[in-house]
Amino acid sequence: MVKHKNYERNVFINCPFDDKYFDLLQTLVFTIIYYGFTPRLSLENSDSGQPRLEKIVNLIYESKYSIHDLSRLQSKSANEFYRLNMPFELGIDYGLRKFNHEFSDKRSLILETERYDYMKAISDINGFDIKNHEDIPVKLVECIRAWFSETVKLRNLNASEKVYSDFIDFNTDMFQQKMIKYQNDHNTTQAERFAKKEIEEMTIPEYIVEIEVWKSRKKHRI
Amino acid sequence: MNKKSNHVIPSSKQGGWAVKKSGSAKVSRSFDRKEEAVKYGRELSRKEHTELYIHKKDGRIQERNSYGKDPFPPKG
């Protein structure tokens, strides 16, 4: 089987897509691009004619690396269901690596909120590379940085605090660029409102392009 | 935009917030609550005549305030 042309650089992201997780998703996507890899998510393609699972299986085939965030395995309120998609997709990814020797080079990282939470829900994965981020963005960057060093064998990586600081600067630069764009035809208050709204409505593919453009402009710094 | 702006950002502590300068990885001060960080950020920015950006947990800008020469002044 011919592997995807970007297989070596693709990182499949398997995570919840709820509002609360979006606090971490933006940081996750930024960090992967920052270190020179390509995040691949089911959100990148909205073709409603293709079944969701088929999209996910394709992403798994196309990505050597994967990050599975199992931090929503526990329901937080009485009527909330815990999420089963993430462990299911982890299983597909693991199955491909295990049962198809062409994909035995696949590598993955499992994330959780609190250390050893997974032992209560899915203890079979004991021994996998599992890190906990406590739902704190800069800790998430620490987890990704450590994994890129330990498993992907990247070297001379910027410190997680520096990456997170650059993430904040990226968000500021993006906001300022939008302000400048809208200020040509609107007053400051309106321009600020439109800038915030545009960023809020940004889809993941748009967001990825913004990061890539920012990164290419700052190449000498990161 | 030559002067370094101040930023209220999530800290490395659960639920905590911090204030840092643009371009600097080191935080100036950390707080348990966002309101405390915002208050400190405002005071600092007033003193330094610079801008304050208050970020959301996802990194996006929640609020921008200018306490010096506003790079985005209202059109007169």
What would you say this structure looks like, in words?
The complex is a heterodimer of chains A (222) and B (76). The longest helix of chain A is centred in the C-terminal third of the chain and has 24 residues, at 160-183. Chain A has helices spanning 19-34, 52-62, 85-99, 118-121, 137-150, 160-183, 188-201, 204-217; strands at 10-14, 38-40, 65-69, 107-112, 130-132. With 222 residues, chain A is of the alpha/beta class. Chain A contains eight helices and five strands; from the N terminus they run βαβαβαβαβαααα. In chain A, helix 1 packs parallel to helix 8. The radius of gyration of chain A is 18 Å and the shape is globular. The model of chain A has no long low-confidence stretch (mean pLDDT 91). Chain B has 76 residues and is an alpha+beta fold. Chain B is built from one helix and five strands. In chain B, a hairpin with a 5-residue loop joins strand 4 and strand 5. The two termini of chain B are 20 Å apart. The A-B interface holds A 22-27, 30, 134-139, 159, 161-162, 164-165, 167-172, 175-176, 179-180, 183, 187-189, 191-192, 195-196, 199-200 and B 1, 5, 7, 9-14, 20, 22-26, 53, 55-61, 64, 70-75.
Brief account:
Chain A has 222 residues and is an alpha/beta fold.
Quote the beta fraction of chain B: 25-35%
The rounded distance between the terminal residues' Cα atoms of chain B is: 20 Å
Poorly predicted runs of 5 or more residues of chain B: none
Taking all Cα atoms into account, the compactness measure Rg of chain B is 12 Å
User: What structural class do you assign from the helix and strand content of chain A?
Assistant: alpha/beta
How is the quaternary structure best described? heterodimer
Distance separating the two termini of chain A:
36 Å
| Count of domain modules of chain B | 1
Name the chain pair with the biggest interface and residue counts per chain.
Answer: A-B, 38 and 30 residues
Helical residue percent band of chain A: 40-55%
Strand order of the largest sheet of chain B: 3-2-1-4-5
User: What is the global morphology of chain A?
Assistant: globular
Strand count, sense and barrel status of the largest sheet of chain A are: 5 strands, parallel
Describe the sheet with the most strands of chain B.
5 strands, mixed
Number of strands of chain A: 5
What structural category characterises the helix and strand content of chain B?
Answer: alpha+beta
H and E order of chain B: EEEHEE
The Cα radius of gyration of chain A reads 18 Å
Strand order of the largest sheet of chain A: 2-1-3-4-5
Mean pLDDT across every amino acid position of chain A: 91
